[in-house]
Amino acid sequence: MFDSDGDFATALPAVALVLVFVLGGCLALPSDDPAPSDLEREITAADPPADITATVDVRRTVDGETSQYTEAVWLRADGASRIETTAGGTETVIVDDGDRRWHYDATHDWATRLETDPAAMSYLEGVYAQQARYLERYEITAVEETSLDGRDTYHVTFDLPANETIERSINVLIDDTEYVVPLATSERAPVERAADHVEVWYDRETMFPIKHAVEGDGVTLERTYRNLSIDPGIDDDRFTFDPATDGNGTAVRDVVMPSIDSYDSLEAANRSVPFAVADLPADAVTETIERDEIIRYEFPDENRTQVSVRYRLPNDESLSVSTSDGPRRLAIGGDAVTLGTVTGTIAETDEATELQWACGDRYYSVLVSHAFKDGTALRIGKALSTDC
């Protein structure tokens, strides 16, 4: 995930981030009634398997509305992956050979190609890193011996520690929807879409999680693995994609990963770009906030530079003000709104309000969490657009 206004995230079909414990190379657990401490030790010591293949059934309920789809997955610890998804009548293939990633929409016959970040964790490594944070913040509250899909399993329940609520969180992208997973706790009220309950069904023989469930504020997510094969040895051809054959000759659009730089001051950020960086106007926000970060993004495929200044509330909700020297290729858009002498667009999502407008050859975006008072985005936009 990149900028808070979703430049890169909106450019690609979202890759479902699998929240599972992939446990390969574990030491033997007691065959009956293992203690929570035994399971914690095995999860902490676990390494990803070399590769896995499976059919994954996904069920998602958000505010009472349920959707379901199926994925065929081939994953390797060296970074190669292939995910074939059928959802809502759309067939999507995502193939990563470790150097480049293809996103192919088979239903609409279009493909996008981008370079893989060489410093990024592999899919499986990233899953493990996330689960290590789960263990740091959750407690194992129950262990039950059961069976699932013909396998003997340990059904393990994780909950937040008693009398604590969520403060700081990480965002988890499932399809095109963001969910919040807690990383820290305090006496403050929980953030929206907070996950406070996790259940995992571990295969007793391999300790692979053949089912994973997350529950929270209006959200239930479930992923169940069928036809699971651990370390089957996957041929390299599975991780190749040729648009001339696999994509029926479809046209290809290349997406180049943006370069990202951080700055400690507005002065330093301004020196790095040929335009004035917009900042949060005085008195536009009544809440107590602090400047969190200043980031410059270079988008080579769009010939565009952007600087975003982000502020945060004590409960980690945020707002950002972005300045760019070119239009976003896939801007969110929204309803027309007048800002002084210019017309912009404003859009509402479940989590935030985004306001966008152009002023000459400069383009601006304000993204405001719903934790702020109504009208905050418009107040900021009107104050910044007075010189247009």
Automatic annotation (TrEMBL):
<dbReference type="InterPro" id="IPR029046">
    <property type="entry name" value="LolA/LolB/LppX"/>
</dbReference>
<keyword id="KW-0449">Lipoprotein</keyword>
<dbReference type="InterPro" id="IPR052944">
    <property type="entry name" value="Sporulation_related"/>
</dbReference>
<protein>
    <submittedName>
        <fullName>Outer membrane lipoprotein carrier protein LolA</fullName>
    </submittedName>
</protein>
